[in-house]
Amino acid sequence: MGCNYTKEELLKKATELELEFIHLQFTDILGVMKNVSITIEQLEKALNNEIMFDGSSIDGFVRIEESDMYLRPDLSTFVVFPWTNHAKEARMICDVYKADGTPFEGCPRNTLKKVLKEAYDMGYTMNVGPECEFFLFHTDERGEPSLETHDNAGYFDLAPIDLGGNARKDMTITLKQMGFEIEASHHEVAPGQHEIDFKYEDALTAADNIMTFKMAVRIIAQRHGLHATFMPKPKFGINGSGMHINMSLETLDGKNAFYDGEGELELSKTAYHYLGGIIKHARSFAALTNPTVNSYKRLVPGYEAPVLIAWSASNRSPLVRIPAKRGNSTRIELRNPDPAANPYLALAAILKAGLDGIQNKINPPAPVMSNVYHMDDVEMKEKGITSLPENLYEAVNELSKDEVIKDAIGAHVYEKFTDAALYEWYEYSKSVSKWELDRYLRKF
């Protein structure tokens, strides 16, 4: 969606647009977007990669004695914010570099670039089309988010039942102004739950787009007096929010590497081996695709989220589905990721799993044609079907045993990510929930 400006062209463009502020954005290891704002007078300095910041203050970055980090803007991510009324503002997404001029290994965008380079060296590029769901909730009199859903509509409902339609329309218009190609938007299954789908892009651009999408949706929701949340499971008893990842590999001459008109299900051997890698490493990369304690409250039976590690060419109950379209649209849909995931780390881990499948010719198990939610333990055992981790602790433990996925994210990210995940798990384990109070306070 970006433009390939040169440094000189971008300086000229910024002057013509009468911009006053530029936001230099990057993402920390936990998937939170960070931002340094500079005035237009500092833009040339930023384009010379001279903007420095204190990395020791960012979660998962570095110690205080090695804290000087530099931001290198990706000029192709330059976009003007459409929502600013007075001073004109724009942003660029940055890579983080160390003071010695080398890429910082704790920068998630650098992590994804490293795995994309591995794929390129094998003759592939990766395309990704995410499906990002979110909830809209009312805010209280102090502007704090509530759990009161915005409407009682369901899947594909429309106004007047779908009260989020106006906010979703404004989000769509805003995203189009920012260069997104929007394919569809609709109300989702749960009350107050929505989805806006945008066109697939190369994996790095797709990850950038996911971060931009979440920022824009939350800002526009706020302007409608609503709170948009990408929390995976904000309410008990209704569907949670997922971020299905549709993906394919493309050969360097532009052909879909997953399509073979003569292959079984019109899938190539590359597709089957990639799928085999995804199935093999699914328990390990779950910590990255589902990174919070709350993520695993979505991955339970009964709410259209996958629980079992299986694949199908048709039904939507297993972990992986192969959508019906073929030719250049041939792709694999991975259904367990949720929007709390750091998209750079999640895509790096998923791609690495698939590449491992190709390199080692890992064959996937037989497809499952029936509804896996209805299988008993005996049938699952006969078919060799296992389940995703049940909680964050189990997921981190699985990640610790998988050298392929650990290699994908690198030693620095692995150490900082698992430290943060285990801290979250232990804090969660010590807390006393409303459920416990309701169940035990009067009983004992």
Helices and strands, with pairings:
Blueprint: H1 7-16, E1 19-27, E2 33-39, H2 43-47, E3 51-54, E4 68-73, E5 79-80, E6 88-98, H3 108-121, E7 124-139, E8 145-149, H4 165-177, E9 182-187, E10 193-198, E11 201-202, H5 203-223, E12 226-229, E13 243-251, H6 269-289, H7 295-298, E14 308-309, E15 311-312, E16 320-321, E17 332-334, H8 343-359, H9 377-383, E18 386-387, H10 392-400, H11 403-430, H12 434-440
Provide structural commentary.
The structure is a single chain. By secondary structure, this protein is an alpha+beta fold. The chain has twelve helices and 18 strands. The longest helix is centred in the last third of the chain and has 28 residues, at about 405-430. The chain starts with 6 loop residues before the first helix and ends with a helix.
Number of H- or I-type helical stretches = 12
- Reading the helices and strands in chain order gives HEEHEEEEHEEHEEEHEEHHEEEEHHEHHH
Query: What is the count of β-strands?
Result: 18
What do the pLDDT scores average to? 92
Helix content: 25-40%
Percentage of residues in strands = 15-25%
Q: What Rg, in angstroms, do the CA atoms define?
A: 22 Å
Taken from the alpha-carbon principal axes, the silhouette is globular
Distance between the termini: 60 Å
Which secondary-structure class do the elements indicate? alpha+beta
Low-confidence parts: none
Q: Could you describe the largest sheet, including whether it forms a barrel?
A: 10 strands, mixed
